[in-house]
């Protein structure tokens, strides 16, 4: 009798990782990027409001770089909300979302004094492996039907990571994943609002809640949540699914296709367009001198870039026009233009000269090729094509690039020296430079 998707998934999760050094090294890099993204958002008003609203003296978890005391569930939400708030955290092509903001947030909220760094990172690797596997099946369907993959897939990935971290036996892990699967949520209509990054926090929170529920009670759950013809896949995809485990940790989702690390606080779907605009500037192109700018995509490639005529700067994070306009106008991204309440009047004036065109050949789900053609007022034309943007695994950011995003010398030193400290909530907090 053929084993079910769920049985085979549990088998794989419980298998020891044989060759782990490179996987753990990449997980450390991902955690460094996660921390950089997280600390950059701590002074955002809505993040501070959340911490202050839920702070209670004697609560067991003190999030890194804060004075707040929160419950594990509240801390998981705080971590995820902050880590994803600026949209400068990592992305994964198979997930088509932000895995670290959810998985690391859930793990940090459950760290205990005896836990070790290697176990922390191995658990992350397995959580990401599950998330990438499910993402290969579910995408681009999630994106085209209006779901936010970061939270839909993230709650299952984070629950998996916690189960590994806490060394769950098989039956308990089965219940954990079944309950997590029924908590998948998050819709893309929230892109451009505070609720989009909140999705990451909610997914982490639900993973922690599920861990506590399964640990404290004998609550039952369906034992085959990933049934080939029913369960989670039937609810979201409405077709039979046979999971393929042939590439499980060979070499691993964290290595292939790998994580994308971001330089700027906007949607990763705009990264290639941004880099192409930089090439136009290097050729002498400036918005004031251009008659028309055309951004060439493959069909449906820009699904996450929902806005052209933006109403708020935050919506601009999901507008290729706004990203390209900034580069062509100022020579580089102006991060402050994604903040506040007012969109520059010059953008609305220039928008009529910036257009999208869907005339590139179809690409694989991980493809991001973009071409920009810019017609000058003097009649000449500039063209730039980017296949692999800076920050992709094939064109990676360095460790110093990632740490340097913080733009705070004291915090950069702290992150650089972090792994010499013990892995515990208290150890991390005490090693930090408190605000």
From TrEMBL:
Location of the MmgE/PrpD C-terminal domain: 264-408
Protein name: MmgE/PrpD family protein
Gene3D superfamilies assigned to the protein according to its UniProt record, in alphabetical order: 2-methylcitrate dehydratase PrpD (1.10.4100.10)
All residue ranges annotated as the MmgE/PrpD N-terminal domain in the record: 21-239
Family from the record: Belongs to the PrpD family.
Regions crossing the membrane: none
Listed GO MF terms: lyase activity
SUPFAM superfamilies documented for this protein: 2-methylcitrate dehydratase PrpD (SSF103378)
């Amino acid at each position: 009798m053929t084993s079910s998707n769920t049985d085979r998934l549990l088998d794989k999760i419980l298998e020891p990782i044989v060759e782990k050094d490179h996987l753990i090294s990449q997980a450390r890099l991902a955690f460094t990027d996660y921390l950089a993204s997280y600390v950059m958002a701590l002074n955002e008003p809505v993040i501070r409001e959340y911490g202050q609203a839920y702070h209670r003296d004697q609560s067991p978890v003190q999030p890194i770089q804060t004075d707040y005391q929160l419950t594990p569930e509240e801390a998981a939400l705080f971590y995820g909300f902050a880590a994803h708030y600026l949209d400068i955290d990592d992305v994964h092509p198979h997930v088509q979302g932000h895995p670290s903001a959810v998985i690391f947030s859930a793990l940090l909220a459950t760290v205990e004094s005896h836990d070790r760094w290697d176990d922390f990172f191995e658990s992350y690797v397995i959580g990401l492996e599950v998330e990438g596997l499910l993402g290969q099946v579910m995408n681009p369907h999630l994106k085209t039907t209006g779901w936010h993959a970061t939270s839909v897939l993230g709650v299952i990935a984070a629950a998996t990571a916690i189960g590994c971290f806490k060394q769950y036996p098989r039956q308990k892990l089965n219940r954990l994943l079944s309950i997590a699967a029924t908590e998948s949520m998050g819709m893309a209509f929230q892109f451009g609002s505070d609720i989009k990054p909140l999705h990451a926090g909610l997914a982490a929170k639900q993973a922690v809640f599920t861990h506590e529920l399964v640990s404290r009670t004998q609550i039952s759950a369906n034992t085959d949540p990933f049934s080939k013809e029913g369960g989670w896949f039937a609810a979201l995809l409405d077709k039979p699914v046979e999971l393929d485990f042939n590439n499980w940790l060979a070499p691993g989702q964290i290595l292939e296709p790998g994580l994308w690390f971001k330089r700027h606080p906007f949607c990763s779907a705009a990264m290639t367009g941004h880099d192409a605009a930089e090439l136009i500037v290097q050729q002498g192109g400036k918005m004031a001198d251009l008659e028309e700018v055309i951004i060439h995509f493959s069909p449906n490639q820009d699904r996450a870039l929902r806005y052209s005529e933006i109403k708020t700067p935050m919506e601009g994070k999901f507008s290729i026009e706004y990203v390209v306009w900034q580069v062509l106008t100022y020579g580089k991204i102006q991060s402050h233009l994604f903040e506040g309440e007012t969109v520059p009047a010059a953008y609305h004036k220039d928008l009529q000269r910036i257009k999208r065109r869907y005339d590139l050949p179809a690409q694989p789900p991980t493809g991001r090729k973009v071409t920009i053609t810019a017609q000058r007022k003097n009649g000449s034309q500039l063209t730039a094509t980017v296949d692999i943007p800076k920050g992709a695994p094939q064109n990676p950011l360095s460790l110093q690039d990632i740490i340097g995003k913080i733009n705070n010398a004291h915090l950069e030193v702290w992150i650089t020296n972090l792994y010499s400290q013990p892995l515990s909530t208290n150890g991390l907090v005490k090693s930090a430079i408190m605000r």
